[in-house]
């Protein structure tokens, strides 16, 4: 295992998951077989967990709303936060779940068509869980940057300046 090669592969794939093995080999001055072996091993070790495409849904006709829900819970004896986290992340509506430091324990990210749909999930599925003490829902109004990518490029004023 070449740790330096692995980190280089990960950095490149994190920026552009569409790079194929041949391109990676050229960029890293390595063989395609060596890159393929390292990538396969990292997938097996669950270092590489998936490949995703970042989509700016605001530029499509699809109605989609993202919400972040703060959740305060009572950790389970002997299990800590893991058991309740598993209950939450197994809901298909949950897109991401993070254990947080600070005033609340979990940040749950959901996507839905309407505020009502997300509110119904929170009130009927999330809040009733035994360990959940409280929730606070925040709706994302606009995304400017996601996964390191600026979604809305700064608009350049192409008008010519007129001076007297």
TrEMBL record:
Biological process terms in GO annotation: response to amino acid
Residues of the Transcription regulator AsnC/Lrp ligand binding domain: 69-142
Listed name of the protein: Transcriptional regulator, AsnC family
Coiled coil (residue ranges): 2-41
A molecular-function term among this protein's GO annotations: sequence-specific DNA binding
Alphabetical keyword list: Coiled coil
Source organism (scientific name): Anaerostipes rhamnosivorans
GO CC, alphabetical: cytosol
Matches recorded under PANTHER family: LEUCINE-RESPONSIVE REGULATORY PROTEIN (PTHR30154), TRANSCRIPTIONAL REGULATOR AZLB (PTHR30154:SF34)
InterPro entries recorded: Dimeric_a/b-barrel, Tscrpt_reg_AsnC-like, Tscrpt_reg_AsnC/Lrp_C, WH-like_DNA-bd_sf, WH_DNA-bd_sf
Keyword presence, Coiled coil: yes
């Amino acid at each position: 295992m070449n740790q330096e090669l692995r980190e280089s592969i990960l950095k490149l794939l994190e920026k552009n998951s569409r790079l194929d093995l041949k391109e990676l080999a050229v960029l890293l001055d390595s063989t395609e077989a060596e890159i393929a072996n390292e990538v396969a091993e990292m997938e097996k070790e669950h270092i590489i967990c998936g490949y995703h495409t970042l989509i700016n849904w605001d530029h499509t006709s699809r109605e989609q709303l993202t919400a972040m829900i703060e959740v305060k819970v009572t950790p389970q004896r002997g299990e800590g936060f893991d058991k309740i986290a598993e209950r939450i992340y197994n809901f298909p509506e949950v897109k991401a779940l993070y254990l947080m430091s600070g005033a609340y324990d979990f940040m749950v990210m959901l996507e839905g068509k309407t505020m009502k749909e997300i509110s119904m999930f929170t009130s009927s599925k999330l809040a009733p869980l035994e360990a959940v003490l409280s929730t606070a829902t925040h709706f994302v109004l606009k995304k400017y940057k996601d996964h390191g990518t600026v979604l809305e490029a700064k608009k350049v004023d192409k008008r010519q300046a007129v001076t007297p």
